[in-house]
């Protein structure tokens, strides 16, 4: 289909039209013309006063397929992604079976062919995500896995993580670290601090995350390897990574959108919808995370989309599962955190693709059209009716949000 976007403000640091207001003509999936005023036989979309940028890319997305399709399948998950402005998603291997061989990688790639949203399966570091033996990393890489992680299970064995970093280095793959020392975190459910004391619950100290960040930074330095930390949540973690970057260690990291706006005070009502991992931290941690985004220490924002059936969340806080569905709200939460639109595009569109080694979408003539149109001032209500996920475990359903993606276009397909 042909599409003509009128009077949009272009936000793309890789484009010569960055920060300019222009019309964009898309024909057969390619941007054929960008100019001040274009007339063409195409579907019109009035974007006056709105922004156009490369589509968002999520580095931490959980979709139930394989095996947990009642939580989310590829169809519902990619529709939710498109609704939130994501034209690409990296799938965590938290499935049954986990993505620990080329068979699962190839299945997911074949199932997602022809989709508006580009899907990139991440393979496991260890077989069955058990943290004992390395998985078939090279086979998965050859089949299309761009990076490796045990998902929501941290790699406790330092020797295994060292071997994974060395092995991945041989074929220029990336290892993700979910930083948590389970021996210190124990079975606690919330952040350790004043709120956990008020709630009468055992807390997870920030140290549990920070020790693992420090360990894996040492391993990356020792092995001269790249490493990516996903969903960091504490002020000290930001400091450690900032210092590592100064030293020249090849490290990148991301933060979940909800960790930019929520603190552990949200748990005072024992609402299990706010139960996430890593846990919600303090206002000081939130401020440090935002500063880390602003100064470049934190490279990307992720949705950490984690769907669950109602029976896993509408229960006592202690036994509820961790996670929030976040694909449709990530952009609004980044705005709520006070981040400017240009920085959000950098953290949601540009950097995630660079981290994963994927060609960055560029708004330029002759380039494939992979774009979104968004309005930073639009107010909307997230409801059960417009929730595109199979699951509804979000504290934002029923709330008014500001900032909305109005159009998503990729692979000659449109969502609006």
Automatic annotation (TrEMBL):
Native species: Mucilaginibacter rubeus
Protein name in the entry: Dihydroorotase
Residues in Dihydroorotase catalytic domain copies: 49-235
NCBIfam families: pyrC_multi
Keywords: Pyrimidine biosynthesis
Cellular component terms (Gene Ontology): cytoplasm
Chloroplast as UniProt keyword: no
GO molecular function: allantoinase activity; dihydroorotase activity; metal ion binding
């Amino acid at each position: 289909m042909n599409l003509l976007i009128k009077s949009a403000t272009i936000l793309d640091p890789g484009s010569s039209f960055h920060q300019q207001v222009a019309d964009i003509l898309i024909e057969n999936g390619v941007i054929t013309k960008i100019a001040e005023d274009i007339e063409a036989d195409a579907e019109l979309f009035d974007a006056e006063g709105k922004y156009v940028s490369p589509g968002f890319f999520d580095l931490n997305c959980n979709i139930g397929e394989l095996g947990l399709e009642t939580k989310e399948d590829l169809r519902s998950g990619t529709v939710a992604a498109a609704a939130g402005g994501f034209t690409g998603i990296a799938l965590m291997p938290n499935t049954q079976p986990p993505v620990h061989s080329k068979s699962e990688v190839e299945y997911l790639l074949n199932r997602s062919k022809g989709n508006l949203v580009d899907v990139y399966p991440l393979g496991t570091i260890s077989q069955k995500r058990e943290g004992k033996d390395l998985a078939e990393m090279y086979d998965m890489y050859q089949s299309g896995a761009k990076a490796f992680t045990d998902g929501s299970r941290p790699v406790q064995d330092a020797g295994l993580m060292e071997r994974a970093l060395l092995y991945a280095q041989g074929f220029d793959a990336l290892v993700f670290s979910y930083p948590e020392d389970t021996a210190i975190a124990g079975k606690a459910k919330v952040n350790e601090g004043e709120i956990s004391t008020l709630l009468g619950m055992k807390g997870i100290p920030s140290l549990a995350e920070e020790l693992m960040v420090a360990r894996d930074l040492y391993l990356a330095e020792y092995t001269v390897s790249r490493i990516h930390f996903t969903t960091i949540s504490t002020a000290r973690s930001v400091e450690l990574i900032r210092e590592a970057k100064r030293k020249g260690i090849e490290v990148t990291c991301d933060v979940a959108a909800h960790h930019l706006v929520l603190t552990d005070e949200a748990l005072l009502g024992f609402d299990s919808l706010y139960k996430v991992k890593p846990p919600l931290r303090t206002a000081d941690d939130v401020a440090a995370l935002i500063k880390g985004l602003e100064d470049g220490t934190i490279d990307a924002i992720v949705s950490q989309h984690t769907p669950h059936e109602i029976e896993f969340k509408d229960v006592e806080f202690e036994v509820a599962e961790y996670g929030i569905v976040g694909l449709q709200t990530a952009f609004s939460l980044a705005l709520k955190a006070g981040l400017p639109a240009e920085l959000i595009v950098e953290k949601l569109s540009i950097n995630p693709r660079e981290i994963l080694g994927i060609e960055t979408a560029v708004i330029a003539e002759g380039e494939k059209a992979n774009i979104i149109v968004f309005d930073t001032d639009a107010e909307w209500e997230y409801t059960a009716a417009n929730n595109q996920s199979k699951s509804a475990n979000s504290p934002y359903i029923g709330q008014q949000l500001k900032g909305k993606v109005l159009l998503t276009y990729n692979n000659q397909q449109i969502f609006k």
